[in-house]
Amino acid sequence: MQIKYTLSEDKMPKAWYNIQADLPTPVPGVLNPATGQPITPTDLESLFPMALIKQEVSTEPNIQIPEPVQSIYRQWRPTPLYRARRLEKHLDTPAKIYYKYEGVSPAGSHKPNTAVAQAYYNKEAGIQCLTTETGAGQWGSALAFAGALFDLEVVVYMVKVSAQQKPYRRALMESYGAKVIPSPSHETQAGRAILADNPQSTGSLGIAIGEAVEVALGNKTANYALGSVLNHVLLHQTVIGLEAQTQLDMAGDYPDIIVACTGGGSNFAGIAFPFLGAKLRGEQKTTRFVAVEPTACPTLTKGKYAYDFGDTAHLTPLVKMHTLGSSFVPPGIHAGGLRYHGMSPLISHLVELGLIEPRAYPQLSCFAAGVMFARTEGILPAPEANHAVKGAIDEALRCKEEGISRTILFNLCGHGHFDMQSYIDYHAGRLQDSEYNEQEIAMALAGLPVVS
């Protein structure tokens, strides 16, 4: 019985898939907060190279992957697809469970798929420094890795609670040559304003984004790089799903259900968009797409679909997305990469179209699922990935209850080797299920910008 499906380097995708080519209705446009009018490429040039701006708005179905990027991808791509046979047996389910394992990358997650591309395009544009934010540290690690390869200075604003929880992620970023600053910090106006209001602030991705954007705007040789949310970031991640399509062909199978965790949306898009594109084109009709988020930060399941800022300091353009409000600071759960107040505009749009099913789980049940996965499949997932594991297990148990065999594919987007403190706390009974504060969300949503 085959367990692992691998591809040779020459089978790696040569182009990224752009779901914007197949949308039944286009995603709502990005607005300039000062004017309320659609943003122009010139408005974005202070943050991004023109090549990425063009990818952000492109409706071409396929965008070629530059050879220098492909050359670096080959160090870990194509990544393996596994059949989780031991997990299936443990669950006593008729379901077939597959997982695409992105933890084999140098940084230990899916994030280098876009970090390498963004570093390449910025280097080509003559940029010398990249600023960014990171929650759990996966994105910061990936950009630090890419910056080292392209000789770019990298400055990472790491959400303070994650910097405290995950010191080894910080050590990895610094080993790659990046400067890591816990956020909120005293180094930016945005950070100082937050600390003046709340000196004990644990930080959030929205706050860290504001600090990173402020620094990039103040330095002509620096640009900002984002690890999720934006269209071009989701585009770069589609190598995951494109490879999975070929690997499932090898297995003689096709997914009935695709599951991935969602914080900003990049790893969900990476695994799901190529299959969702096939569904939009009418090539198949039945696949369900399940996006799993934490109940402590329930952006898709409880958020409002509205125009909002991507950062707390209100330095970014306005995008229409599911949001809990840019001032909302989620509880300090260990899945730091999922603690974002907003969601990718593309994924938000697809949820509104009824093409994606959002689902929220509490922290403890996700860790229980991750431990079960480790004890059957041998890989300890990152806390973020545990949400996808939990979603896949629930779908497999549903198959058992109904007596129906379905094929489930999920994205194991990263390993948990840098997250051992969270597992120590889980096994010691120190973790708790953190519920979001409805009053805080209501206050944050009350401050949404008015868009006519």
UniProtKB/TrEMBL annotation:
Coiled coil: none annotated. Keywords: Amino-acid biosynthesis, Aromatic amino acid biosynthesis, Lyase, Pyridoxal phosphate, Tryptophan biosynthesis. PROSITE patterns: TRP_SYNTHASE_BETA. This is Tryptophan synthase beta chain. Belongs to the TrpB family. The beta subunit is responsible for the synthesis of L-tryptophan from indole and L-serine. It is an enzyme of class 4 (lyase). It catalyses: (1S,2R)-1-C-(indol-3-yl)glycerol 3-phosphate + L-serine = D-glyceraldehyde 3-phosphate + L-tryptophan + H2O. One of its GO terms (molecular function) is L-serine hydro-lyase (adding indole, L-tryptophan-forming) activity. One of its GO terms (cellular component) is cytoplasm. Its cofactor is pyridoxal 5'-phosphate. Tetramer of two alpha and two beta chains. The gene is trpB. It comes from Coleofasciculus chthonoplastes PCC 7420. NCBIfam families: PRK12391.1, trpB_rel. The lineage of its organism: Bacteria, Bacillati, Cyanobacteriota, Cyanophyceae, Coleofasciculales. HAMAP family: Trp_synth_beta. Pathway: Amino-acid biosynthesis; L-tryptophan biosynthesis; L-tryptophan from chorismate: step 5/5. The modification N6-(pyridoxal phosphate)lysine is found at K111. Its EC number is 4.2.1.20.
